[in-house]
Specification:
The C terminus is likely disordered. Helix 1 runs parallel beside helix 8 and helix 7 packs across helix 16. Helices cover 75% and strands 0% of the residues. The relative contact order is 0.16. It is mainly alpha-helical. It is built from 17 helices and no strands. The chain has a single domain, classed as Up-down Bundle (Growth Hormone, Chain: A). It is a multi-pass membrane protein. Keywords: Cell membrane, Membrane, Transmembrane, Transmembrane helix, Transport. This is MFS transporter. GO terms for molecular function: transmembrane transporter activity.
């Protein structure tokens, strides 16, 4: 007997609410996570620390997210997706409002690490929530819209503090960011529909090992690690380059580089839809290649080339992330929250470790060394993307040759096992 699939589909009121709620969640999460990134040169001066150490104000937050996503995702299997996401977003907003009160680099760094732990619940659970509640044929587009929200959140998380700090200093910049992030958090709370298909389940730590034994998921986790390491490195240290000679741009203008994330958000939504239509294996390696080509344009000391290169690089990165993250949720037949959490653990470890390593490259070889470091990272991601094999789904189910098929065109029995209604 075939059980009707009652998950939300494109055009339904429920999916529209989910899209809006998760869009707001992406906004508040990435605003909070990267609110210190555009301020790194100013914070270097305020606390008399070099660029690599200043980058810890980003890396500690993302590293804390990386460490927390796996246990938080396990909590969501027992206590529910929506509860964990709402508590997490409210706690992170509260910590964000305390950041302007920090008086030393150490206390600010500690507060950023605490904020990262608080933030972990939203990214840890959002992909599993979408995989539970959204029909497979609509999942890629829904994931793309969530990633689009994170992209715009990244814009606001850099643009708001950099603009305000140019007028009133970094403390007011962080305060303004905290207030805007809190408003988006309340919108997320009000809009998020309850889970209809979630079923509480005992925490199965063996699911983590099953996912790690899946070679396709391992490659997707490697893509998350390397692509995010490269992306954060570029946005951490391109600001230093643009403030120095020969560019010499003011802080408020340098903060505008975050506007490229708007194009990245559009690219992520488009890539998710395209992956639903022609298949992820056809889209993912190309997205990595686009990012690498954009980065190559930033080598010359030409502002127009740097601007175009950054735009292309950002579009390629967001497309890569949208397709890879959606593939994880679709590939894992059981323990989707843990599968998504492992992806995000790799993603934020890339941000934390890779971003700080990029600071060492910048201190030793300036932008040329930094860009070469990022090109190597995306070369690894491109190779991994080209070798992902979708024929075996984590948990032992097979797609029977679906590795080249569009992502939604799998049997319903494979789309939901282990307490996830199909």
């Amino acid at each position: 007997m075939v059980i009707p699939d009652t998950r939300h589909r494109t055009g339904s009121p429920g999916l529209r609410r989910i899209n809006l709620a998760l869009f707001a969640a992406g906004l508040t999460t990435f605003m909070s996570l990267y609110c210190t990134q555009a301020l790194l040169p100013e914070l270097s001066g305020a606390f008399a620390v070099p660029p690599a150490r200043a980058s810890l104000l980003v890396s500690l937050a993302t590293g804390a997210v990386a460490l927390a996503v796996v246990p938080v995702s396990s909590l969501s299997e027992r206590f529910g997706r929506t509860r964990v996401m709402i508590v997490s977003s409210l706690a992170s907003a509260a910590v964000g409002l305390l950041l302007p009160l920090c008086t030393t680099f150490g206390t600010l760094a500690a507060a950023r690490a605490l904020q990262g732990v608080a933030l972990a619940g939203v990214p840890a659970v959002a992909m599993a929530y979408l995989a539970d509640e959204v029909h497979g044929l609509s999942l890629g587009a829904a994931m793309g819209r969530y990633v689009a929200g994170t992209g715009i959140g990244g814009v606001l998380g850099r643009l708001v503090p950099s603009t305000v700090s140019d007028v009133a200093g970094w403390r007011w910049g962080l305060a303004a960011t905290g207030l805007v992030a809190s408003a988006f958090t309340l919108a997320f709370w009000a809009l998020l529909p309850p889970s209809r298909h979630f079923r509480p389940a005992p925490v199965d730590h063996r699911a983590l090992l099953r996912h790690l034994r899946d070679p396709g998921l391992r490659r997707l986790y490697l893509i998350a690690l390397t692509a995010m390491a490269g992306f954060v490195t570029v946005f951490n240290f391109l600001t230093y380059r643009l403030l120095d000679a020969p560019f010499g741009l003011p802080q408020s203008v340098v903060g505008l580089i975050a506007v490229t994330n708007l194009a990245g958000s559009a690219a992520s939504a488009r890539a998710g839809t395209l992956a639903d239509r022609i298949g992820r294996r056809a889209v993912l390696p190309g997205a990595c290649g686009v990012a690498a080509c954009g980065l190559a344009l930033t080598f010359p000391a030409s502002l127009p080339l740097v601007a175009v290169g950054l735009l292309v690089f950002t579009c390629g990165f967001f497309a890569t992330h949208a397709v890879a993250s959606g593939w994880v949720g679709a590939r894992a037949a059981t323990g989707r929250a843990q599968a998504s959490a492992l992806y995000l653990c790799a993603y934020y470890l890339g941000s934390s470790i890779g971003g700080t390593a990029g600071g060492l490259a910048y201190e030793r070889a300036h932008w040329t060394g930094t860009a070469l470091y990022v090109l190597v990272l995306f070369g690894v991601a491109c190779l991994a993307a080209a070798t992902v094999d979708e024929r075996v789904i984590s948990g032992g189910q097979t797609t029977k040759g679906a590795d080249l098929a569009p992502s939604g065109q799998r049997t319903e029995s494979n789309a939901g096992h282990g307490g996830h209604a199909a």
